[in-house]
Amino acid sequence: MLLSHFAQVARNSTVIDLGTGTGIIAVLLSAKKDPRKVTGLEIQPEMAEMADRSVRLNALEEKVEIVCGDIKEAVKLFGASSFDAVVSNPPYMEKGGGLLNPADAKAVARHEVLCTLEDVVLAAAKLLRPGGKFSMVHRPQRLADIICLMRRYAIEPKLLRLVYPSPGKKPSL
């Protein structure tokens, strides 16, 4: 939900949601920001099917498309410089960050099992048109990694919003 509010998506633009999961961000962006087209890319077939079902249930087939595919193959699937905006809520936990079942859908969504933070930033850099916007939600613990990777792939961070779970607590997103 935070990503759909925070993302800088212009009216009548084209948007891709990398790692769309169940498609909630794609659906919300379509409703809130009125882009011309939102594409949700999801590697897990069962999640992509849930996302597609959400699109149909919300009668958004004309504006939202769900594609089952790998972020690492996104440029081959869609072409370079093909989106005005890229959004992502990538896996927060680095590979090796605890025990997990790699076949579990939640583990794939939460841990860098099938893609890394670098894969997401690289794909965003290649998919964005010049002047395009990349918006992402992640953990503050990875902020240095995020900024270094964005710089490496020529994405200039312009806006940062910290999310606090409650007053007096450290930021969690």
Mean pLDDT: 90
In terms of quaternary structure, the protein is single chain
Low-confidence stretches: none
Distance between the termini: 12 Å
Task: Give a structural overview.
This protein is α/β, with parallel strands linked by helices and 173 residues long. 35% of the residues lie in helices and 18% in strands. It is built from seven helices and five strands. Helix 6 (117-127) runs parallel beside helix 7.
Secondary structure layout plus pairing:
Elements: H1 2-6, E1 14-18, H2 24-33, E2 37-42, H3 45-57, E3 64-68, H4 74-78, E4 83-88, H5 105-110, H6 117-127, E5 128-136, H7 143-152
Parallel strand pairs: 1-2, 1-4, 2-3, 4-5
Helix pairs in contact: 6-7
Give a quick precis of the structure.
This protein is of the alpha/beta class. It has 7 helices and 5 strands, in the order H-E-H-E-H-E-H-E-H-H-E-H.
Q: Notable features of this structure?
A:
alpha/beta, single chain, 173 residues
